[in-house]
Amino acid sequence: MPFWDVPGLIGRRIISVPMITGADGRSTFDLEGIGRAFAQGARSIILCSPYNPLGRVFTETELLGLSEVVEEHGAFVVADEIHGPLVPAGGEAQGRTVPYASVSEKVATHSINLMSASKSWNLAGLLTAVGTLFTDENQRLWKKEVHELETEGASTVGMAANLAAFTSGQPWLDEANEYIHANAVWLHDELARELPQAHFTVPEATYLGWIDFRDYGLPDNAGTWLLKNARIRLNDGPTFGPGGEGHARINLATPRYLLVEALGRMADAVNSR
């Protein structure tokens, strides 16, 4: 998982702050925990919004709360919003996500926005992304600290494909989002029938699902267990940090018949333990 690997490559120490359950029953920021991490010496936070792997679309209120903690400690936000276009109109978030830098002018001064068409339009192989800084001072610091050869390697084809996706690709994406959302709803309903002790919430965004197998006693690396016993490949929960034990991440951006086959194998393997 790049969030865990890349910071270490540049000598940064990672302080993990798992999500907590909010008053509405949804996962949200642990603002006190984030504040403690800053007090321990952290100078920046990686914000994945919408949130992978849980599929949360954070509200403006949640993001403002985060920004207040960041401002209090003079920290910086790296806002990875690559899943931003993957919000179905028929889902709980009704097709809308809130970019972190949009919640206030002050927020824009302590953040960088990272975006690409690679997730939403399946263009990851073209290796093209965009980082947006919102103040002259932050742009000056970027040019001072980051060598241009590390950031200017996008291919011509990748740039053209991203431009085409963002300017002309919305009709296709709308259909894709609704198909993915329908897959998520189907999986939720079928899991309730076939594996009622597995817990799954329909994601508000992304094409990824997060399944909790702990009540079935699956090992921490549930994805590895499913690969061995059900011959399906899901991501191990611990890959995404503390709290992922006994969970697995599934890709919902797939034809329905493959999802049907995967669930059948999953149910057979788990129920025959």
Automatic annotation (TrEMBL):
The UniProt record lists the keyword Lyase: yes
The lineage's top-level taxon is Bacteria
EC numbers on record: 4.4.1.13
Q: Pfam families, from UniProt?
A: Aminotran_1_2
Q: Which cofactor does it need?
A: pyridoxal 5'-phosphate
- Keywords (A to Z) from UniProt: Lyase, Pyridoxal phosphate
In this chain the Aminotransferase class I/classII large domain maps to 29-253
- Does the keyword section mention Zinc-finger? no
SUPFAM superfamilies noted in UniProt: PLP-dependent transferases
An example molecular function term from Gene Ontology annotations: pyridoxal phosphate binding
Query: What family name appears in the similarity comment?
Result: Belongs to the class-II pyridoxal-phosphate-dependent aminotransferase family. MalY/PatB cystathionine beta-lyase subfamily.
| Protein name (Swiss-Prot/TrEMBL) | cysteine-S-conjugate beta-lyase
From which source organism is this entry?
Acidipropionibacterium acidipropionici
